[in-house]
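Why show two proteins at once? Because comparison is the fastest way to build intuition. When a single record is shown, students tend to memorize it. When two are placed side by side, the eye starts asking what differs. So, the first record is below.
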Amino acid sequence: MEANSAVSLLLALSVIILASRLGGSIARSLKQPRVLGELIAGVLLGPTLLNFLNWDIFHGVDLALTVGELAELGVVILMFNIGLEVNFEELTKMGRVGVIAGTIGALAPIALSMPLLMMMGYAWQPALFTGVTLAATSVSISAQVLFELGVLQTKEGNALLATALIDDVLAILLVSLVVAVTAAGGDGGSLNASDLAVVMLRMFGYLAIAGAVTWFIVPRVVDWLSEIPMVTQAYGIPAIAIVLMLIFAWTAEEWGGVATITGSFLAGIGLSRTKDHIHEAITENISVIAYGFLVPIFFINVGLGADLSGFPLVALPFALLLLFIAIVSKVVGCGVGAHITGFNRLESLRLGVCMISRGEVGLIVASIGLSVGVFEYDSTLYAALFLVILLTTLVTPILVRWVFTDRKQAPQLKTKTNPA
């Protein structure tokens, strides 16, 4: 009797989601970010140790493609959720430091890592994508630590939220540009000036049009639809939100030639501007689907794609060098940006340290690089990058607690902020 792939998938998904929850819960009990436990669970399930997708119980069914497609849907809804959580009030409070520190903090990792990798013989595509991966920041990890320490409602806490927002937007734009250029360049990966101009025009044209639609039209239309009883019943508004997320994700790659996460992120930003009760209903319902089902598949799948068992020990110094660049570029880049805007040395150091973790955003960028074939011919580079993301996620809570040892020097602000 031929094996039923759908039945095998049911068991595989149950293992993935259970492992994700267990890994995340263990990490939180050890006062570490949940994402760290989920990544480690994925590594253990993957070819590094258990290689569970190839267990005999699955009767030889190839589940990697289906799990990968669900993981891609997971990253789309994850970036949609990040867009939903964008708080522009926080950006305006610390707008100057956010723009300057976020920009320098996003460009510094690229400026430090890309020339180094090209000197080591890497092509410009993997070198640039490595830099873009290191440019990303996971605000949720540092914000959660600051919240636990009771210092999120401080000057540094507000600056973190604004700086991370700018950083993430720049990272998404850079990812979109690299993906568009790589795709247009074909197997050779080279473009002449006219081809590059077309790619840039297509990308920025899409961003301008889609951005305008999500900013001005989407919130007004959804607010209007929410007043129609026939639409609002039976989870109508969350369903509309999902439809918009999927459409914008599709148009991003199909029309703009950029990553699907760009479209879903824009859709999330647009829906973040709806009325408070609508925004709350969308966020609550989408979060259940995202964090209860699809996002765990994404995190575990990232671990499944990293075979650390074959990671050569001779490449460990290279991974540690990338880790050094990852830490220094954020501390110095964001710190200098903060100092320029009037922060003192301690405040600048604190902001820089809070920006170290790459977390889920770094994973998103790295996984896109893997999916478009940038890391296809060098699994060592991807494994090293994965290790760096893992380690920055691990050390950030420790370093944040250390720089905030003297909390009296981080006075609380009267403004209210929400933990990410």
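Second record. Ask yourself what differs from the first in the token line.
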Amino acid sequence: MDRVLSSVQIAALLVSASYGIGFLFGSGELALTHGMAGSIYGIATGFGMLALALVAKPLWKSGLSVWDLFGRAYGTQLRGLVAALSLVWMAGVLAAQIHGGVAVARLLGVPDPHGLIVVLGLIYAAAQMSLRIASGVFTGCLLLSGLVLVYALVAADGLALYLGAVPRFVEDLDTFSPTQLGTMSLAVCLLVVTGADYHQFVMSGRTARNAVVGCAMAGLALILIGFLPAAVVMAMQSGGVLADMPDGKQVIPWALSHAVGGLAGGLGAGMLVALSLAALGSGAAILRAMASAMSTTPTGKSRPRLASAAALFIGAALASRDQGIVETMVSVNIIYLASVGVCFAALLADISLTHQRARATMVAGLVVSGCVYAASWLGLLAPQADALSLGAGLAASMGVAVGFGLVAGHQRADVTKSCR
């Protein structure tokens, strides 16, 4: 691994990896109903970065990603399981990009289900492009959207609203239920701490201090950026221009298009095209990562295009569920966290688990949390069962970990008695 990144470079990469369609469109969607508290995803991501700074030094010293840490502690089989479980949260991120792409397609006049088919086809095609070319184009589109977001805030006379965002954010938090707020915040923060996509930048720092400072800088930057989408939406709401907004997922692309559309003819449509490219780019990047994870299987190695198609199908299936953008990501993140959470905590606490005990612990969390998610999707439980999914999954993992240890302890005691 090349350890060449300065603190500023690490911070820039961490921010760029976090600032995407889910962050941008999802925060705007939440702001319609939760006010400034709609910034919760961005703010939780920022605090997750600050938490990552606390573990950045030992992470940098180890030089290992989360699944390599599991592999070293619990064996190669567990390394593969954690890598496979990463598909779970990546599918949620892909679904968010699909949501965003479809929202832009609707604004461009492409009706459902044609918009979904077009978005899926373009994401698949974009994933086959040269990564260097694609990353430059898509990153540029996201940067452009950020600049236009600031312009839209100023044009809507929302600067004072943004400067007073913190007290307003705290005030608006009561629009969420306590369980919804706690589950969402915890899920986002923990995913940042355990996410291998963030770890790669931390471990590439020149020194451990660079890694720690870079994470802290990224956290503060994301907290500052996190209030922007909600501030724009609230400023436009107060001006009455969002009264007929049909779909919350469209509010940010519509706002950005509206902001630049008044400058010159055609700029509004151009902004929508740029946002669609950003959605496609983010979707293509995560699709490549999912296909790479799937390629560890014999079928995936022999048929990489089939692996990409399968990953895209999973993302499309999750996107078909009637959820908000942030809710889609959080619900699926929880399954991953419920699976790896107990074993990851054991690693941090330097608690030794046998390979069999760790595997049983992770599988228990995956099965229970996954079943709760499926039951919620099928209407057997409340639509927002995220707290139950996380709590039940972690409880199952902890129960199996403790129970496995008790059984092993009894077995050792029996062996000792028989030897006597």
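One difference worth noting in the second protein: Confidence is low (pLDDT under 50) at residues 408-419.
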